[in-house]
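Suppose you are handed a protein chain with no further information: no name, no annotation, nothing but its sequence. What can you learn? This example shows the usual starting point.
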Amino acid sequence: MRRANPGFPTGPAAVLVTTLVLAAAATAVSGLSWWSFGVVLGGQLITLAWLAVAMKATNRDSKNAPLPSRDQTQKRRRLMAQLHDVRDAAGALPDAVVLLDARGNVRWFNAAATRLLGLRERHPEGSLTRRLAGSELGAWLQTDMAEPATDMPAPADPSLRLSVTIMPFGAHLRLLLARDISTLTRLEQVRRDFVANVSHELRTPLTVIHGYLELLDPADVPELAPVLGEMRMQSQRMRQIVEDLLTLSRLETREALPDEEVAMVPLLETLRREAEALSRGRHHITVDASSQARLRGSTHHLHSAFSNLVSNAVRYTPSGGQIVIGWRQTVDGEAVFSVRDSGLGISAEHLVRLTERFYRVSSSRSRESGGTGLGLSIVKHVLNLHQGRLVIESEPGRGSTFSCMLDASRVLPPASDGIGRGESSPA
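A reasonable first move is to predict its three-dimensional structure. Written in C-alpha cells, the prediction is:
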C-alpha cells in the first residue's frame, strides 16, 4: 500500500494548492474577507497557473519535443523557487495548519501542527479524529464543528491552550487551523483575579463609609443636607458597582449553573411587580405571555438577568412610555424572553458593543439613571452559561427590544398541577 508523503507537496499543481492553503490560513488568522483574499491572490495564482501549464506543455511528449529553450528553463526555475518559498512560509507559520480530505484523513500539515497537535511525519496517514482520540480536540472533531473551539488544551502539551476552527477548502477538502492562545488565556486570568481581588478589598471600606453616612441626619446639619444626600447616593452606586463586578467574576469562573425547573409565568409576574415598583407609576407596564412553558436552568441567575433587562427599560424609557415583558416559543422550539420599550432607542453603531463592561451610549444619562454599566455584561454571561444568546433590536426614536434566546433543549412543558402557570396550589 502506498503511503502518503508527509512532506510538503511538489509539482506545478501543488504550487496552486499550497498557495491556496497558505492564503486561506492567512485570511482566517488576519480576519480578511474572502473578497480581499481573492484580490490578493488573483495575480499570483494566474501567474502560477500559466507557469504550470507551460511546464506541462514542455513535458508533454518529451521524447519528440525539442530541448527546452533558455526562457523556458528560467521560467521553470522561477516556478520552483516560488514553490520553495511557499513551502518555507508554510513551515514558518506559528499556527497549526492541517489539510484534511473528505473522510477526515490528514493530507498535509505544517511544523506547528507537530508542536501543538502532536502530529508526526512518520505517521502521516489516518483519520485526524482517530489520531487525536482521548483529547478534547478529538472529541470536538466528532461533533458537527459548527462553532469554533475557542479554548481547549493542546493534545501535544495540555499546558497550552488552543483556539481551533475548521473551514471548507476546495471541492472536498477542509482546512483545520489551531492557534496558541496560552498567553492571552493567562492575561485574561490575571485580569479576572485582579478584578475579583480589588472588588473584595473595596467592599468592606465602602460598607463602612455608607454605614456612617446613614448615621448622619441631614436635619441636624441642614446646610450640609444636599452634600450628604449626594454622598449617600454615590456611595450606594459604588457599592452596586462592586457587587456587579463580583457577580461577573463569579460567573466567569463557572462552567455551568444549577439545573432547576424555572416556572416562567410566576417569574413574569414577579418581574412586572418589580418594574412597577421601580417605575412608581411613570410607565405603562404589561406582560405578554403566549406560552406556558417552563425553563431548565438556574432560577436565581435567570431572574437576575431578566430583571436587569426590565430595570434598564424602566430607567431609559421616558415617563408615559410603554414597557412589554414577553414570553413565547418559536416554531423551532426556542424560548424567547423579551423586553420591549418605547424609549429613545439606540443607534446601530452602538449595538455590537452594548454588552461590553462599562460601555455607555450616553455617560451622563447612565449616571443619572443609576446604572453601573455592567448589567448587560451580566446578562450575556448568564445566557452563555445557559447556552443562550442576547439579541438586541433598536432604532433611534422607536424604542428597543432585548430578547433572550434559549435553546429548545432548555424548554420544559407546562406543569400539570397548574403551579407553573401561576396558579395557586391546593391547600
